[in-house]
């Protein structure tokens, strides 16, 4: 084949929304966290990154990334770390079999598109780097397992390591300095708890003022409350959450989800100067969940917020009418409802305009 040959692979990766949050790095170069975390992988039919990776000896100008139609940075240390790891694995295959084309030496072109707001607290970096790692691994025909890709994606964005698995996923913080034990594993597949649903309320699609990367670093450096969070709050929440998932105990799952979100946002408020990711509409969504639960006389819904104002509400299918109906009623001004299934989870999303 001539030097004009273009090699190409396309993949999608889902978003995951943590119920025990990752917030804080012990190693900023390797993206090693200060605590373990646990998330639910959402439907790829709703929120996903779609990434095509290609390479060719005819490509000039080095590696590139077109994100949502605009040129994006690939020179960042974390994107470079992903490229380096994947190229090294391809180079090893090429060394073992000289008949293979030398893809590892060719410039990489990535084209990616998120079908939901980017950098708005809906885990675009998680879906984005999971898709990036998998697309390049496919392009290079690497025999990489989800666990191995999880180690690579983690170096792009920490939360991305969890998007390589479906269902309920833990990121074990590990304790090795080289990060070789800091990766995700599946706690339970989606079929284990098929009634679980996620309602996504897009409060604002705007790019956040403080990125997750920078926000968590400021928290690590200045918050006293954060020390308490990583020493005792998160270990306790992880243990209760894994048990709640194993036993399909929704009230326990819900309480930890809400408490952990509140704990994470409290450390943001305790950061100096403080960081505020939630806004008035976010707080109205919290009150709405409380009203829904009070009206039902039991816990039927749980809210959680990542580093942004947008709410994710977990509930069980049997309570869909009570939860989704009440949200519609309480918050009003809701547009764009959609429902679909992926990863075994159905998620429903709605757009709530601010103001
Ligand atoms: P979010 O809350 O959406 O995860 P972050 O601040 O963690 O926000 O990360 C946003 C950054 O993640 C973007 O500025 C971009 O650098 C990267 N990113 C988002 N989507 C993709 C994608 N599809 N492919 C590659 N990188 C992406
Ligand atoms: C609040 O994974 O986006 O969503 O590793 O710096 O890219 P980097 O940060 P990122 O942080 C996610 C923070 C969170 C909680 C979570 O997803 O666990
Ligand atoms: Co992110």
Automatic annotation (TrEMBL):
Q: Which GO terms describe its molecular function?
A: ATP binding; diphosphomevalonate decarboxylase activity; kinase activity
Identify the pathway.
Isoprenoid biosynthesis; isopentenyl diphosphate biosynthesis via mevalonate pathway; isopentenyl diphosphate from (R)-mevalonate: step 3/3
Give the reaction(s) catalysed: (R)-5-diphosphomevalonate + ATP = isopentenyl diphosphate + ADP + phosphate + CO2
| UniProt key word Heme | no
GO CC aspect terms: cytosol
Boundaries of every Diphosphomevalonate decarboxylase-like N-terminal domain copy: 13-184
Residues in Mvd1 C-terminal domain copies: 198-355
Q: Could you say which EC number(s) this protein's record lists?
A: 4.1.1.33
By its UniProt entry, which InterPro entries does this protein fall under?
Answer: GHMP_kinase_C_sf, Mev_decarb, Mev_diP_decarb, MVD-like_N, Mvd1_C, Ribosomal_Su5_D2-typ_SF, Ribsml_uS5_D2-typ_fold_subgr
Keyword annotations for this protein, in alphabetical order, are:
ATP-binding, Kinase, Lipid biosynthesis, Lipid metabolism, Lyase, Nucleotide-binding, Steroid biosynthesis, Steroid metabolism, Sterol biosynthesis, Sterol metabolism, Transferase
- Highest taxon, organism lineage: Eukaryota
The GO biological-process annotations, alphabetized, read as: isopentenyl diphosphate biosynthetic process, mevalonate pathway; sterol biosynthetic process
Under the heading NCBIfam families, the entry gives: mevDPdecarb
Q: Family assignment?
A: Belongs to the diphosphomevalonate decarboxylase family.
Q: What is this protein called?
A: Diphosphomevalonate decarboxylase
Species, as recorded: Cercophora scortea
According to the entry, what is the taxonomic lineage of the organism? Eukaryota, Fungi, Dikarya, Ascomycota, Pezizomycotina
